[in-house]
């Protein structure tokens, strides 16, 4: 019974497989039938369907597809486009069975390209033989491609046949032969290239192939001959690169000679070789040649040695850094040491002119720790502080803060400068008391700049704490410090800072009044507006009133909703008399996209001094603003512009904006 069930299941499975095969074969037949008659642009999409079929088929099931494609290649009725796509797919799946069909197309001016690429990718000897055998009799137009495929396969047996083509009358064939011989790179190929005589336009390719072939073979004599015979500096440089890679001592000396020569492409090439081509003999030759170079050349070459990355140059660079008589050379040596050296060079480098800048990019581990240790070295203290600041070494912050009280003014100034780079918000409460106690002068200005920079990015709570410390000392400090506290108020912008600024407006000191007014004008939000409006109304001098009004107009439009901005701006209208303030208000209204902004702007249409600015502002508001229910206001404003001005540009803009607008009922 069980056996009968198994037989039944087997019968069902075989029937299903047979049915599947019957369904699949016709589909394949359609694809290949369509491909045989395919032309670019056909709606059958035979090429795409074939590619999809190959993609979905397992490699061990390629044979039926290959047979169908071979049949297309052998068919006299198949189209050229169909055969091209057959070759393309054979690039992926062809075996030696496809070689005869592909070989038959190698002399075809169009299909040769597709056929040879399929043969080029195959590994069997017969595919290579097919390419080789087709070369002599092939048309000149396909010979470069055939030689390219032979070169890609590194076919040494084709060298003689390719070498014969150096005598062709077709320049494309000669160029292909030169290129292929250079890539195949056998002694016979090198001999053929060395004997070849070519026209001037092919000489660059000739030399390029000679260099490639000789470099591949490691033939230094041939490379030296190319360098000596070739008039082109670029190709001389290429020969030098190959020779230096072989660690050729003579070539290393030639690089140094080129560096010492007058400016030329060869000199540029030699400089690039120093940077990029590894070679022990080159490093030794360059180091030995440094004393004979001019200071300018020596400095340049030393910089290149740093980029070269060869640590064997370190002893010479250290000596140059300490003994060379030329400042530029010593600095260059220092920069090179910074790239190549480690922490043992930090102290010496720091002592050079521009030492902090030289040490800054050093990537060696432990540099920051060495610099922190050097903070105790009186001779290098200031330089070490500067380097720490430039490197952003925050772990030195506590020690740098302590050095703000050093007996040396240079050290103190360097410390404050560095703190601007490395201190954080958390350090502000420590720095503020130091600032308040400092006497007036450039040093306090430095400290103030540091506090200001840190305050601008601090959180609200820290700002409150720090400004409170400043405010507590406001009355008991000197005039300049009071002015500084007022000046940095906008960086804090706290309630206490605002109150202090407003109170200073009533100061007996004109300097403090002026500083407070200018600080309020620089406030980051609209909080000072009430105080500024009051001053604009009741200021003791006309200048004070004007400055307060201008500051008010600027801040009124600075923060809040459009309605809030407009409400503040309307309060200033009774105070605006001068053309300058009218223009300022109009410029602010331009960026408030609201119907009331449009209405307020329109109040200036009859003022000849600002009418043009007001109309332009109104047009900008209309263009950017989503009108909604206020279309009638817009239409009325635009019509008024058309009727009120003679400016053609304004009229055109208004008429254009009117198009498509329908009055609301």
Explain how this protein is built:
The chain is flat, with a radius of gyration of 42 Å. It is mainly alpha-helical. About 3% of the residues have low confidence. The protein has a domain of 87 residues. The chain is built from 41 helices and no strands. Helix 4 packs parallel to helix 6. The termini are far apart.
List the SSEs and their pairings.
Elements: H1 2-36, H2 46-56, H3 63-74, H4 80-93, H5 99-103, H6 112-121, H7 125-134, H8 143-152, H9 159-164, H10 171-184, H11 187-195, H12 203-217, H13 220-229, H14 233-245, H15 249-260, H16 265-276, H17 280-289, H18 295-308, H19 314-323, H20 327-340, H21 346-350, H22 355-359, H23 367-373, H24 381-391, H25 397-402, H26 409-422, H27 428-437, H28 442-456, H29 460-472, H30 479-487, H31 489-492, H32 495-504, H33 510-521, H34 529-538, H35 542-556, H36 562-572, H37 579-589, H38 595-602, H39 611-624, H40 631-644, H41 648-658
Helix pairs in contact: 1-2, 2-4, 3-4, 4-6, 6-8, 7-8, 8-10, 10-11, 10-12, 11-12, 12-13, 12-14, 13-14, 14-16, 15-16, 15-17, 16-18, 18-20, 19-20, 24-26, 26-28, 27-28, 27-29, 29-32, 30-33, 32-33, 33-35, 34-35, 35-36, 35-37, 37-39, 38-39, 39-40, 39-41, 40-41
Percentage of residues in strands: under 5%
Q: Largest beta sheet, briefly?
A: none
The overall strand count is 0
Contiguous low-pLDDT stretches (5 residues minimum) are: 10-26
* Averaged pLDDT: 91
Q: What is the helical fraction, as a range of percent?
A: 55-70%
* CA gyration radius, whole angstroms: 42 Å
Q: N-to-C terminal Cα separation, in Å?
A: 92 Å
Please tell me what the overall shape is. Answer: flat
Number of helices: 41
Strand-pairing-aware structural class: mainly alpha
């Amino acid at each position: 019974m069980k056996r009968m069930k198994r037989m039944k299941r087997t019968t069902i499975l075989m029937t299903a497989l047979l049915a599947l095969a019957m369904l699949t074969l016709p589909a394949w037949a359609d694809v290949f039938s369509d491909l045989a008659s395919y032309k670019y642009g056909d709606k059958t999409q035979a090429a795409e369907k074939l590619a999809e079929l190959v993609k979905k088929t397992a490699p061990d099931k390629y044979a039926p597809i290959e047979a169908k494609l071979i049949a297309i290649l052998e068919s006299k009725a198949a189209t050229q486009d169909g055969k091209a796509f057959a070759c393309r797919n054979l690039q992926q799946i062809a075996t030696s069975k496809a070689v005869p069909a592909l070989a038959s197309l190698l002399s075809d001016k169009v299909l040769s390209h597709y056929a040879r690429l399929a043969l080029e990718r195959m590994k069997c000897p017969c595919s290579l033989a097919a390419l080789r055998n087709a070369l002599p009799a092939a048309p000149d137009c396909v010979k470069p491609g055939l030689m390219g495929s032979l070169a890609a396969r590194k076919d040494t047996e084709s060298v003689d046949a390719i070498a014969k083509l150096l005598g062709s009358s077709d320049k494309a064939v000669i160029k292909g032969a030169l290129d292929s011989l250079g890539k195949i790179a056998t002694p016979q190929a090198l001999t053929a290239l060395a004997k070849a005589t070519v026209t001037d336009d092919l000489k660059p390719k000739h030399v390029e192939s000679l260099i490639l072939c000789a470099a591949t073979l490691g033939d230094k004599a041939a490379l030296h001959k190319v360098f000596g015979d070739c008039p082109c500096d670029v190709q001389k440089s290429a020969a030098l690169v190959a020779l230096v890679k072989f660690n050729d001592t003579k070539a290393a000396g030639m690089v140094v000679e080129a560096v010492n020569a007058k400016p030329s492409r060869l000199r540029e090439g030699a400089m690039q070789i120093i940077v990029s081509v590894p070679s022990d003999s080159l490093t030794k030759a360059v180091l030995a040649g440094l004393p004979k170079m001019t200071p300018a050349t020596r400095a340049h070459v030393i910089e290149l040695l740093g980029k070269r990355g060869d640590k064997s140059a370190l002893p010479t660079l250290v000596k140059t850094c300490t003994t060379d008589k030329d400042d530029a050379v010593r600095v260059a040596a220092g920069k090179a040491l910074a790239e190549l050296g480690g922490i043992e060079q930090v102290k010496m480098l720091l002592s050079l002119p521009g030492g902090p800048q030289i040490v800054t990019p050093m990537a060696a581990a432990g540099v920051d720790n060495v610099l922190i240790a050097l903070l105790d070295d009186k001779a290098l203290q200031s330089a070490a502080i500067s380097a720490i600041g430039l490197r952003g070494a925050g772990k030195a912050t506590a020690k740098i803060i302590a050095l703000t009280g050093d007996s040396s003014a240079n050290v103190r100034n360097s410390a404050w400068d560095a703190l601007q780079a490395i201190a954080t918000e958390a350090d502000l409460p420590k720095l503020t008391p130091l600032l308040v106690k400092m006497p007036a002068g450039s040093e306090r200005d430095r400290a103030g700049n540091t506090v200001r920079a840190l305050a601008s990015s601090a959180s609200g709570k820290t700002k409150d704490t720090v400004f409170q410390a400043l405010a507590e000392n406001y009355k008991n400090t000197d005039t300049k410090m009071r002015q500084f506290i007022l000046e940095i108020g906008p960086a804090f912008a706290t309630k206490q800072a605002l109150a202090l600024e407003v109170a200073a407006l009533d100061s007996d000191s004109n300097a403090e009044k002026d500083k407070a007014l200018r600080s309020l004008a620089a406030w980051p939000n609209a909080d000072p507006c009430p105080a500024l409006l009051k001053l604009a109304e009741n200021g003791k001098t006309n200048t004070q009133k004007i400055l307060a009004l201008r500051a008010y107009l600027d801040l009124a439009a600075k923060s809040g909703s459009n309605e809030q901005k407009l409400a503040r701006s309307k309060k200033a209208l009774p105070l605006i008399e001068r053309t300058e303030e009218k223009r300022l208000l109009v410029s602010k209204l331009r960026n408030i996209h609201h119907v009331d902004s449009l209405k307020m702007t329109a109040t200036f249409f009859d003022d000849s001094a600002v009418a043009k600015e007001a109309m332009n502002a109104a047009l900008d508001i209309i263009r950017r603003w989503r009108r909604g229910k206020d279309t009638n206001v817009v239409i009325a404003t635009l019509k008024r512009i058309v009727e009120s001005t003679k400016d053609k540009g304004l009229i055109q803009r208004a008429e254009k904006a009117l198009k498509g607008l329908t009055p609301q009922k």
